[in-house]
Amino acid sequence: MKNFTYEVPTKILFGKNRVTEISSEILRYGNKVLLAYGGGSIKQSGLYDTVVKVLEDGGIQFVELSGIQPNPRIESVREGIRLCRENDVQFILGVGGGSVIDCIKAISMGVDYKGDVWDFYIRKAKIDKVLPIGTVLTLAATGSEMNGGSVISNDETQEKRAAGDDSLRPRFSVLDPSYTFTVNKWQTAAGVVDVMSHIFEQYFTQDKGTFVQDAIAEGILKTCIHYGPVLLEEPDNYEARANMMWASSLALNGLTGTGKLFGDWATHMMEHEVSAIYDLTHGAGLAILFPVWMEYVLDETTAPKLAQYSRNVWGITATDDRQAAQEGIAQTRKFFTSLNMPASLGEVDIDGAHISTMSEGACKFGPLGMFKKLGKEDVSAILTKAL
Ligand code: NZQ
Ligand code: ZN
């Protein structure tokens, strides 16, 4: 196990009605707030009214940024920065899923920056001064509620890029599982796949001696496999929603990646290329690409870890590592399909027209992956197999 520092300052307010406690958390930083949200789900569910009342009762002034889209666009970020500057905003509150949270992180890093905020996403600028943020999570998937990452899309350049820093971890996040009752089946399933994928990205490394991290990771995967199907049948099952919500935060708050190399992340990079061009739901793209990636990287160096996954998570009994790995990959694909997630790009009407653009884009900053290094040709081969 490698040396590591683990510090997560995000205060988690987990459970029913915890949103009523946010005023005192916000007032530590000021009383001028940007309230950011998406396309209307929080208005339909009544959460918007609750949040507004809590802010008003707390004597907090706020301006609003609405309409943040899934795969959040850079235009919303620029608009949010303008609102923060014009209104001397001291704190940003995001109410929504990963897209809203990623957008407020981008605003947070951009308010004090003189240039264009996209510079952070193309590695032209380094994150320096940030505005504090807090979140009320409404969809269990990305872990953005407890990490410092942000992913933003730029339609002009057809790019979807990530930026991040520990300083961007939310100061608090409200995790009330009942807010996720209204998430539809497609987004719920995509969320389950995303959580599992975050575990995969950190689990599949060549590190040795990380038994505890692996055991936590395997436990989170089993949680997804256990509760994913329950959620599709019973969307308002509190226990299932609660377990998925906490799993989403734990899967990408740095915990399972401690003491190891950074992780693999090749599949995420490839998926971001696909959703940059086709605006595909992130988890759906991962459901297509992850099993293909697993098959592609399977060789004598990777078989032992893939076999460990297959045995510990799926109960595969094959003694030969390659055989066990293949059976575990087949189970993974079958599980994603059982959640009604697509298994090929063709199923979501994506053909091979942009494979070379996507392969170039994925490797813009160099080869991908740690478990096994992948160049442009490999990315192209994986995307072709995924058709
Ligand atoms: O916009 P509204 O009306 O809120 O509707 C949203 C949206 O249409 C809806 N939704 C959210 N909560 C709901 C709800 N509908 C009913 N009831 C609720 N309670 O769901 C749709 C999708 O929302 P979105 O926020 O886009 O989903 P998700 O949380 O999966 O976020 C996906 C984005 O996060 C990025 C992805 O690439 C994608 O852009 N990621 C961010 C990461 C991070 N910051 O760490 C890591 C991930 O790997 C990922 O890349
Ligand atoms: Zn993800």
Describe this structure in words.
It contains 15 helices and eight strands. It has helices at 22-27, 41-45, 47-57, 74-86, 98-110, 118-121, 185-203, 211-233, 238-251, 266-278, 282-297, 303-314, 321-338, 355-362, 376-385; strands at residues 11-14, 32-37, 61-65, 91-96, 133-137, 149-154, 159-164, 172-175. α8 (211-233) packs antiparallel against α9, α8 crosses α12 and α10 packs across α11. The protein is globular and about 65 Å long. The site of zinc ion (ZN) has 6 residues, from α7.
Structural features:
Dehydroquinate synthase-like, alpha domain, two-stranded antiparallel sheet, binds 5,6-dihydroxy-NADP, 48% helix, 387 residues, binds zinc ion, 15 helices, alpha/beta
Q: Can you count the beta strands?
A: 8
Poorly predicted regions are none
Overall pLDDT level: 97
End-to-end separation in angstroms reads 38 Å
Q: How many domain regions? A: 2
**Strand residue content:** 5-15%
Class by alpha and beta content: alpha/beta
Spatial order of strands in the largest sheet = 1-8-5-4-2-3
The CATH class of the largest domain is identified as Mainly Alpha
Q: What is Rg?
A: 20 Å
Q: What's the helical proportion of residues?
A: 40-55%
CATH topology of the largest domain: Dehydroquinate synthase-like, alpha domain
Chart the SSEs and their pairings.
Layout: E1 11-14, H1 22-27, E2 32-37, H2 41-45, H3 47-57, E3 61-65, H4 74-86, E4 91-96, H5 98-110, H6 118-121, E5 133-137, E6 149-154, E7 159-164, E8 172-175, H7 185-203, H8 211-233, H9 238-251, H10 266-278, H11 282-297, H12 303-314, H13 321-338, H14 355-362, H15 376-385
Helix pairs in contact: 4-5, 7-8, 7-9, 7-11, 8-9, 8-12, 10-11, 10-14, 11-13, 12-13, 14-15
The structure holds 5,6-dihydroxy-NADP (NZQ) and zinc ion (ZN).
